[in-house]
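Changelog-adjacent note: as of this version, every example in the card shows the full chain rather than a window. The one below runs 122 residues end to end.
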Amino acid sequence: MKFETILSNFEKEGIEVVISKGEEVLTGSTIKNGELTWDKEPERSYDDWQNFSVNIAYVYLQKDEVLSPLTAIGKFKHWKDWEIKLSDLLQIHSAIDYLDIEPDRVIPFSELQNALELEYKK
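Full-length structure tokens:
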């Protein structure tokens, strides 16, 4: 599944993408026609890849007032250059579910199945 398609589905469902560090939102974004533009270009830091640290800025999916953590910004900023892997799809699927949105509306189950087959054919 293409990243642009996922972003278009975010747009349809009213899902925003924000970067937050703890309680502080550092920057928001705009999704239009399957492209994400940051309000302010996020800065990477040396510790982008650490897990569960309060000192890291994370990407969150937001619907209304509900925030669902997705990933550290170091990984997120590079998705455009990578083929989206099954683990990425599952992370998004899980984050969407937390927002109380039917995950199938963003990433259809058939897409997860296709990604799984591709991953294990290698």
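Structural remarks: Strands lie at 16-21, 24-27, 29-32, 35-38, 58-63, 66-72.
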